[in-house]
Amino acid sequence: MDIRETSIESAPRRRLTALGVGLAWLAAGAAVGTAAPAEAATTLTVYAGGSNDQGSVSPLVMGTNHRYTFNGYETWDPATGQIRPDIVTQSRQMGLTLLRWPGATHANTLWWSDTLGDDRRCQRDGRITDLGNPDNPADDVLAARDAAYGLDEHMRFVEQIGAQAQIMVPMAIGNPVDAANLVEYLNTPAGDGINPNGGTDWAELRAANGHPAPYKVTRFELGNEHYHAGQRYWMPQNDPNASPPARPAIAAYINGADRRITGEPLGKLTRRDAAGRPVCTGSTAGVASDGTAGQVFDLNYPSAVVDTFTLRVGGVTWRRVDTLATAGPADRVYELSPHVGEVRFGDGVHGAVPASGASVVADYTSTHRGFVDFYRRMKEVDPSIDVCASWGQTTFPPLFKELAPAGSTYDCLTMHPYTDFQGENKTDWDSAQEAHDWHMLSAMEERDNLADLRAAVDANTPTPHPYVAISEYGALWGPEQNNPFPEYSYSMTHALYMANQWMHWQTMGVPWAAGNALASDGWYTLLGPADKGFVYSAEAIAREAVKPMFGARGQQVLTEISGGPVRDPANTVMCDGGAPSSCQDTYPVLRAMATRAPDGKVYLMVVNRSPVPNDAITVDVTVKGFTGTGSATVRQVAPTAFTSHNDVNTPNAVALSTWNRAVGTNTFTATFPPFSITVFILPPA
Known about the structure:
CATH architecture of the largest domain: Alpha-Beta Barrel
Helix content: 10-25%
Number of strands: 36
Strand content: 15-25%
Structural class: alpha/beta
Shape: elongated
Radius of gyration: 27 Å
CATH topology of the largest domain: TIM Barrel
Largest sheet: 10 strands, mixed
CATH class of the largest domain: Alpha Beta
CATH superfamily of the largest domain: Glycosidases
Number of helices: 12
Distance between the termini: 30 Å
Number of domains: 3
């Protein structure tokens, strides 16, 4: 597919790399650092006739992440067994089309099957609270988490709002059979007597859990961000003598590997409250025996190879047995559940009770299959699904080609094109305006990273090539101290950044994308924290504004901007503090995208990214190959400042306005305020 970028993104100092993608770059007007107007009239041409179509519109680029922890960050109400009604309403209102589950880093160590039904197991939170020595998984600490917002709860929520699900399959402690069972649970029909993966008939269990019909999930990705040291778990860390240094870890991700873990002090995920009820308040941090009957301890990283497993209680080796039922009261024995990583002791009748204060320490080999085996077993259950690798870096495609067995493949590769201000040395913000400019400059860099990854995939795979999808993105991690713009992550600036990326992802043919995230305990998500009443953010408002455009599907059509102003932030401001060379870049103030729906309506989205008050831009718009009715619906988000944000005190500081206005049958003039997002809906005559 020939995909052309439709507006210039930077001055010539910046690389404008196509990497195999056809681009239509247009001449920009005068560079402006303040409110200076363009030197020539600004025109916007929309080629709606059909000969310049740019590819199908995918509404699934308007997805987001949602996480299982903390009752889906309090969006799930255990008392009613439902998603909160206000969350359902707001999710529909902002037009969410795709929801990722069970989440990200924390979900790398989830057992999905233990999130079903009434008898649920406490989960390990993959956000290692004490990484210790990265080369020694024995000293990792993973906190316990309750899984009340489980798989079925998520799927019911997805159905309620008319969206689709994207599932991240945890690999850090899972195995291919478990992943295949997940596909069977989600996608196979009940009542047909067919059990494609053997063992439990998961379709019948789904029906027993209240959903006889298959959920029909088609998008799966294996693991989350294992390229980060804190998400390697049992995988090797970087080897400075390898090329690239991540080669051992990538090899383990692709083909699996074993890891010897010695001297791991076992913890307890499940503890008991004052009434003796089990609660998920523990962790895998080593704890001594409390001297009670029937204690259960947990490993960090199942699956454990049984024949390699040694357990010491108070320094004395105990013996593994298949069942405690035949053990005597003094027998120093234990049961091992190697795949879920549990060690169970006796009750003093069947098996001895470890003495109070005794340490419990294990040595074992943690064995794991890789992507290739997961992919094969999952596709055997349902060949129609897409199984994505998640090592979204350019080092992965050539190593997969080299290291994977002949004939192996992946359907897609997911990436997380975040703007990480701290990681990219862009946090020396002298003002909110500088922060805004860094957002706008960084948006193009993430587009470049996407193009680079797609080029690496295409260069190392046969046709038809796997596609690149986006399972997380956003602009995060600004300065922690003396931040002149602490509201940046939920302000209009962030909404403009995300609108810019929606256009990028659509223009580049990304089939689905999930931003970060629906809800959390902070302000940086679509809905503000639960204790603040889930405030509807500026980004949520922006999504609501563009919802009709993406929901109408159809075709993206070519747009051209001529004479538009270019913002040139002062280099002396942007480049202090050791900033990267992009501190010298410029960016066009206007960006535009247009689509033609199946019913003939033309949708035009225009973003004015200027942070300068009164920097409105008047544009002469021509829609070629189209005759309208002379009337248009306008949807606009235009707050009083780029720093505007919604919170408990000003919940409507950023709001959506809609109105109708007269236009010519194919030409009209419009003025776009600064820091605004505007959508025109033009019906055909």
